[in-house]
Amino acid sequence: MWRLFACSNLARMSPKLPSHKLAYIFLALASMFWAGNIVLARALHADIPPIGLNFWRWAIALAILLPFTIGLVRTQWAAVRREWAYLALLGFTGMAAFHSLQYTALNLTTAVNVSLILAITPVAIPIMAWMFWGDRMSPRQGVGIILSFVGVAAIVTRGDPMAVLSRGLAPGDLVEVAAMILWSLYSTLVRWRPPDLHPNTVLVCSMAPAVFFILPAYLWETANVRAMPLDWQSLAMVAYVSLMASVAAFIFFNRAVEVVGPTRAGLFIHLIPMFATGAAVAFLGERVFPYHGVGAAAIAAGLYLTTTQGRPAATARR
Question: Crossing angle, helix 84-91 and helix 171-190, to 10 degrees?
Answer without folding.
Answer: 150
